[in-house]
Specification:
Elements lengths: L1 H10 L18 E7 L15 H8 L2 E8 L2 H4 L3 H12 L18
Length: about 110
Amino acid sequence: YDDQVALIRMMLRVEGLEIKTVDGFQGREKEVVIVSFVRSNKFGDIGFLGDLRRLNVSITRAKRKLILIGDSQTLGSESCYRRLIALAKSRGGYKKVHDIDFPHHYLY
């Protein structure tokens, strides 16, 4: 997971942007939090993401906006994530990656 953090840091060079694992934000809040769930596989194996305490830390750090990025098929194998995905869909917050217009000037 540290390798993914390093890659995201390299790709998104925005001043003041903090990129850390969930453990790096425990006890802290930020205006905007983006969570990458990293797991994607055809077996629905979510590994350590099944630890609901870690999920709680990751989704309760945002003051204004929370953006969750993940493979909904993999995550949807777990009931808690299924409910989270359903909530995002019901509020119009669920987007497929191909439908998002990324600001390419931030990407290297």
